[in-house]
Design goal:
alpha/beta, Rossmann fold, six-stranded mixed sheet, 8 helices, globular
């Protein structure tokens, strides 16, 4: 079942220095339960495309549907949770209070809020940290709290914009493992922006390789890796072969440009 469908998508920003072509002729189908990573050089439109899905940017050409709706309709229907590059937690609210915020805005009852906070804290392995403040947690734990906040209202789609980019490699590896387990438990459809080839290959069922601006899709790689993925799968010949294809796709995008 198609969850996100882009056809001939274009986005041009008008600036004082003239038009900036951010996306050009993007065609992509994301199926229910897919884990799709977007990878490409800085400024290639990865985040812009994610923001289009979220209804935060508006394409200037082509069509884009989310759960059969326009992105604006999907946003109003709360079809997705969004995790930004920075955790973006309010320092004056506890971790539980931060997770509870979207539930308060949506009008959930106090009892339902408490149940959902407890459930999502458990999902991201932060049980017992509800009354802590963000400054009392490590960067990795703060990002897990941010993921919990995005999961709290149980949207079918999770959009993640380089959520682990600022973390050290050891923490990043750990959170990659935890994210795969979370995806397996929740069966969400995930769109994930990254600059890391190993991260894209390790996490994804589908890897979308994008060219330098104007952002175009140069390759869509269907992963042949099993859904159960220990970290040492990264040493396998199959993993290395997929990573090589991603690297070649990135190189081809630069050459075409």
């Amino acid at each position: 079942m198609s969850v996100i469908e882009a056809q001939g998508l274009n986005l041009t920003f008008q600036t004082n220095d003239g038009p900036v072509h951010a996306l050009r002729d993007v065609n992509l189908t994301i199926e229910k339960g897919d884990f799709v990573s977007f990878i490409g050089p800085s400024g290639c439109g990865k985040t812009t495309f994610l923001r289009c899905i979220a209804g935060l940017e508006h394409p200037t050409g082509g069509t884009l549907s989310v759960n059969g709706m326009t992105p604006d309709e999907a946003r109003k229907a709360r079809a997705y949770g969004y995790v930004f590059q920075a955790a973006g937690l309010y320092p004056w609210r506890t971790i539980g209070g931060n997770i509870r915020l979207p539930l308060e805005i949506m009008g959930f009852s106090k009892e339902e809020q408490s149940e959902r906070v407890k459930k999502t804290l458990d999902l991201v392995d932060l049980t017992g940290f509800e009354k802590k403040f963000p400054w009392q947690l490590s960067g990795g734990m703060q990002q897990r709290a941010s993921i919990a906040r995005a999961l709290a209202f149980d949207a079918d789609i999770l959009l993640m914009d380089e959520p682990f980019g600022a973390l050290d490699e050891i923490v990043r590896d750990k959170l990659n493992e935890e994210l795969l387990k979370l995806w397996a438990r929740t069966e969400k459809t995930i769109g994930f922006v990254t600059h890391s080839i190993p991260e894209a290959v390790y996490l994804s069922t589908k890897i979308v390789v994008m060219s330098p601006r104007p952002g175009r899709i140069t390759d869509v790689i269907e992963s042949t890796l099993p859904r159960e993925r220990p970290l040492d799968i990264r040493d396998s010949a199959e993993f290395i072969e997929i990573a090589h294809r991603v690297r070649e796709g990135l190189r081809a995008g630069h050459i075409d440009d």
